[in-house]
Every structure is written in structure tokens, then in C-alpha cells.
Amino acid sequence: MNSDKQHLRSLPSVDRVLREAGHLAERWGHERVTAAIRNELEQMRNNPEALNTADKTSLLSHVAAAVETELENAAQSSLVSVFNLTGTVLHTNLGRASLPEEALQAVQVVARSPSNLEYDLETGVRGDRDSHVERLLCQLCDVEAATVVNNNAAAVLLVLNTLATGLEVPVSRGELVEIGGSFRIPEIMQSSGCVLVEVGTTNRTHLKDYKNAVNDRTALLLKVHASNYQIQGFTRSVTETELAQLAHECGLPFVVDLGSGNLVDFPAFNLPDEPTVAHTVRSGADIVTFSGDKLLGGPQCGIIAGKRELITRFKKNPMKRALRVDKMTLAALLEVFRLYQDPSRLAEKLPTLAFLTRPAAEIRTQAERIAPRVAEALAPRYEVAVSECHSQVGSGALPVDTLPSYGLRISAADESDEAIRQLAESMRRLAVPVIGRINKGAYFLDLRCLDREEEFIAQLEQSK
Ligand SMILES: *Cc1c(COP(=O)(O)O)cnc(C)c1O
Predict the structure, then answer these.
(1) Is the N-terminal amide bond of 48 cis, ω within 30° of 0?
(2) d(CA 175, CA 433)
(3) What is the best residue among 257, 296, 303 to mutate for testing ligand 1's pocket, by most ligand atoms within 8 Å of CB?
(4) pLDDT digits over 313-342, tens only?
(5) Is the torsion defined by CA of 329, 334, 336, 340 positive or negative?
(6) 263 lines ligand 1 (CB under 6 A)
(7) Sign of the alpha-carbon torsion through 263, 267, 269, 272
(8) 237 near 177, Cβ under 8 Å?
(9) From the CB of 298, is ligand 1 less than 6 Å away?
(10) Is residue 274 within 6 Å of ligand 1 at its C-beta?
(11) Could you give phi then psi for residue 462, rounded to 5 degrees?
């Protein structure tokens, strides 16, 4: 008999392990523990070589310990908080905007108990869930009506499906954008059931291109904010005012997919200029769509704002029911809008704006303050230097404008790429994973979004 088989024979029974690990049942419940033991024994049966290394007499406690580890691991949530030190403030893969405290509290209230989500407390009859945010939204965007759906992709889909199914929509070739791989204007137009008519060229589109494309099958004119890139050089695009005028001469609605959609004047916050939703509406847009979790700094959602007659049609489309937002989103969004009512305190209250407006000098001071402790925690394998860098807004907002910032440039003492890769990996394995970026043979942490500084350093020191 070979040694593998001997070991298989000596594997304890499920009951035997249960007795050994009885205390686990109190915490995890009898059924889960039994299932975990079965699973562990099964794995050992399938992998006898691994058993050879285990001392036969300690096999029982070995199995019990493995079961406990498995249960502990399974209890860890896969969705956890991380430190976003990538230098991209609105990072789609890291969940985009962080919500303000006021919004978090409002989410708890509606999540914990029933609410008047779709119930009119005045009349005691069914209400409209949009009503909670619509009034403020209309004030902030200078529009007649608005509705909220799951994200901006859904907003564009709902608008096109309602107004343009089976009809044509001319779009400039310079605006057929792809956002983050999963949202492509041509594909969303196809899904909505309308026919895309490409006009102009990649770098130049003229008003006459649109004029030539309009016919009696045209549903609307659409302008898409070229969010994540900029065409430079010999370029020409048609302004919103010109397009609005043409649309209205032809009796068509003019729709603008603004992408990021900000509600405040950015230069007033020392940020690069970006047209506000209200400005786009004043330029003649009948409908504007934008995201809730980009520059707006709120929860994930898509906002459709504009003419009441059109908004009413979107609300009646059965697709709206499939794309509607839940009560937690509305609760958070309402609080974010309330913060916008006081722009003077917005940069202090809204995390996205707070991160975007953090002065480089302040970030530098923070970098100099923590660099020695980070260096100490990573020595002797790594060296840490304070370094200038440029943050990005992210999520397709302001693609060419960067924000001056500071960070930690961490290099390997042996100058190997492997050491840098290992550092990035161990950073991702921390209790609160740290996400930085690897750049030119070094590991880089942009500190613009580092708000929990002590927690960040403490876990580095503990992991040493
Ligand atoms: C980001 C973006 C979208 C998609 O918005 P989501 O909220 O991510 O669905 C659509 N159009 C433009 C122009 C964008 O920038």
C-alpha cells in the first residue's frame, strides 16, 4: 500500500471532526460547519500528496483548523472599502463618487424602515418617486421637469427609445464615443431601436451636414459630450446653440448627452471650465442627460432633465419601470441636491468636490508628513520619496485637464520590476486594500484622495 492510500484511510469521519470542532457550530451553525467539513475532507481526498506532509496524528486538528479558516474566509465580504490612491478621483472601477455624510444618513433612514417613497402623505394616494428630487433638480438645472433612472446609459436609452424607435437620429462622427468599454453610443442607439445616421467626419462636422441628414424620418438631434477625449488640430463642431436652432426650425427636439453634468460653476472653485447643465439648457437643449456619480458627486444614477412634455413621455414608457432607481439612491440624491443649495459650503461637504479642490500645497504637506513613516514601514526593501504628480478627474470628465498633486514614489532597493509588482500585490492584500499605480519602474501613490491618513499608515506599520 502506498503512503497516499494509507493517509486516505486515516482521514477522520465528518462526525469525528464535528466533535473536535464543536465550538465552531456555535458561531457558524451546525449545517454550515458540517458542509465545510465535508468540503475539506473531499479536497483532502482529491489531493492526497498534500496530506503526506501532514503528521498523521495531528490530522484531526489539521482538518478542524482548515475548516475554521475556510469559514472565516467565506465570512469576509468580497465588496470592501479601499484606499483610492490611483490619482483618478472618479474611478469607475473603484465605485466613482464617495457620498457625503448627509446622504449616508438619509440612506439608512429609508433602508431601515418603510417610507413614503411612492405615497402622497397629503392625499393618502399613490405618489411619484421622482417627486422627492424633482423640485430641487429643476431649480438647480433651470428646467421644467426631470426624472431619474439607473445610470446615464439608461437615461440615453430611455430618451432614444421613447422619442426615436424606428426613426433616424443624426450624430456627428466626432461624437460616436465609447465610455469605459461598456457604453458605446452606436450600440446604445441600436439597443434603443433607433437608426443612427452618421454625419460629418471625425474631426470636422458642419451645420450643413446635419441639415442634409434631416428628413421626415428624423426623430431628434443629438449631441454627445466627447467625455473622455479631445479632438485637437483642424477641427470643427457645431455648437449647441446652432444645433438647437436647427432642431427647432425643423420641429425636432434637441437632446444633449452631457455625460458628467455638473451643476456649479467650476472656475469659481479654481477648476477647469465645464459647461453646467443649466448652461446647456439655456443654449437651447430640450433634454439633457447626465450621471449622478460623476462630477455631481452623488449616487449612481442617470438624470434626464428638460421640457415637461417630453419628461412626461419618458415617465410613461414601460421601460422607465425597468430602469427606475431605488429608494436608497433617491434618498442619497436628495441630500446631495440639498448641499448644492449652499454652494459656499459645497467644497467642504461634498467629498468629490473636496478631493478635486484640494490644494497641491496641502497634499504636499501631507506627503511630507507621512513619507518617513511609510519609508520606515517598507524599509529596507523599498525607498520612499515625495514626488509631484498630476491627478485626473476620471470617468470621462475633463479628459485633458489634470490637477497638480503630490504623492509617494516608492522604488525597490534592488531596482527590480518583480519587487514593485510584489509591493503592489501586498498593498492590495491589506485589510483596507491600497490601490496605487505602477509607473516607470516605481509604485506610485497619489495622496489627493487620502482622507483616512492614520488608518492608512497604521495598517502599513502593522503589516511590517
Ligand atoms: C459616462 C458617460 C455615459 C455613461 O454614463 P453612466 O452613468 O456611466 O451610465 C454616457 N455618456 C457620456 C457622454 C458619458 O460621459
Answers:
(1) no
(2) 37
(3) 257
(4) 999 999 999 999 999 999 999 999 999 999
(5) positive
(6) no
(7) positive
(8) no
(9) no
(10) no
(11) -65, -30
Atom of ligand 1 nearest to the CA of 293: 7
> At CA 187, angle to CA 186 and CA 193, rounded to 5?
95
Calculate how far, in angstroms, residue 92's C-alpha sits from the geometric centre of ligand 1. Answer: 11
How many A from CA of 155 to the centre of ligand 1?
9
Residue of 179, 229, 274 with the most ligand 1 atoms within 8 Å of its CB, for mutation? 179
From the CB of residue 13, how many other CB atoms can be counted at a distance below 10 Å?
A: 10
d(CA 358, CA 420): 28
Question: What's the 380 CA to ligand 1 centre distance in angstroms?
Answer: 45
Q: Answer yes or no: is the C-beta of 227 below 6 A from any ligand 1 atom.
A: yes
* DSSP per-residue letters across 37-96: HHHHHHHHHH-HHHHHTS-GGGHHHHHHHHHHHHHHHHHS-SS---EE-SSBSS-GGGTS
Q: Which parts of 218-343 are beta strand (E)?
A: 221-224, 254-259, 287-291, 302-306
- Structure confidence by residue, pLDDT tens digits, 201-250: 888 899 999 999 999 999 999 999 876 667 777 777 889 999 999 999 99
The tens digit of pLDDT for each residue in 262-311 reads 999 999 999 988 889 999 999 999 999 999 999 999 999 999 999 999 99
Query: What is the SS3 assignment for 225-249?
Result: CCCCCCCCCCCECCCHHHHHHHHHH
Q: What is the pTM of this model?
A: 0.90
In terms of Cβ atoms closer than 10 Å to its own Cβ (0-12, 13-18, 19+), residue 442 is buried
Tell the residue number behind the cell numbers 465550538, with chain if given: 23
Distance CA 64, CA 58 (A): 10
